[in-house]
Amino acid sequence: MAEPYPPGIEPYAHGMLDVGDGNRVYWEVCGNPAGKPALVLHGGPGSGAGPFWRRLFDPAAYRIVLLDQRGCGRSTPDAADTGTPLAANTTHHLIADIERLREHLGIGEWLVLGGSWGVTLALAYAERHPGSVSGLVLFSVTSTTRREVEWVTRDMGRIFPEEWARFRDAVPEAEREGSLVEAYARMLADPDPAVRERAAREWCRWEDVHVSTLPGHRPDPRYEDPRFRMRFARLVTHYWRHTAFLEDGALLRDAGKLAGIPGVLIHGRMDISGPADIAWHLAQAWPDAELVLIGGEGHGLSGTSMTAAVVAATDRFREA
């Protein structure tokens, strides 16, 4: 079983790229300066790219690029500050940022690795700029459709009824039968800081619940940080309420644009946060993709088998 590469892989270059609209995105490069270029697209949106992502690549073979997407991680301005506007924070802006970074680093094409929300962004980027992508390694596959957003925010109440009732009841009673994403986004913009904080806390509490399908699940410690909670909740609700700023179903519809780009789709069968049919339908529409369904695994890389499959996939692409 493939193991993550050892810790201690440190950047040899980093910077802040001015991408316009008052935004500067943090980037870093580690591994082999002469290696195969690879880009990491983190989840959330709003999680930021932590050091563990570096360990999914062979540092002797890859030139590993990480960036923090607009508004999160080390990028500025910080979406944790409720005065930070989000109008210039859309999928289309992020795609443009990725291309600007590729050109800034002098990279012709790169392998793109994404997880969860990072899959949605990777697919949107690759369909827009297929000539910039040498391959795709995607895990915990999502495409941020209206159906997926409704599944996570409402239908999963059938699986976690008590927890979902708390999530719903944090919203004013008059709004509970409508879009919960819209209701939370409104509360996160409320002038009363107590309303904003409660919304961020309850949103992140529910985020922790709907990925907790495996025995031994531990709450994500990042949600204990009030600034992370606010940043994460603001960005997720912003993107979800606009279904990733894409025409609903467009990523699957346009999967033919990925023809000739090899890919691996890695998904846990126990991932009820993002059901496996999302990955399966994508694999049917993208003939160059291999679907790897892993029994007993859920959402993200909390399980060893999911992590091993991602590392095995990047190892396969080393020489491709």
Automatic annotation (TrEMBL):
GO terms for cellular component: cytoplasm. Keywords: Aminopeptidase, Cytoplasm, Hydrolase, Protease. It is found in: Cytoplasm. Residues 39-300 form the AB hydrolase-1 domain. Coiled coil: none annotated. It catalyses: Release of N-terminal proline from a peptide. One of its GO terms (molecular function) is aminopeptidase activity. Pfam families: Abhydrolase_1. One of its GO terms (biological process) is proteolysis. Its EC number is 3.4.11.5. The active site is at 116 (nucleophile), 271, 299 (proton donor). Belongs to the peptidase S33 family. PANTHER family: PROLINE IMINOPEPTIDASE (PTHR43722:SF1). This is Proline iminopeptidase. The lineage of its organism: Bacteria, Bacillati, Actinomycetota, Actinomycetes, Kitasatosporales.
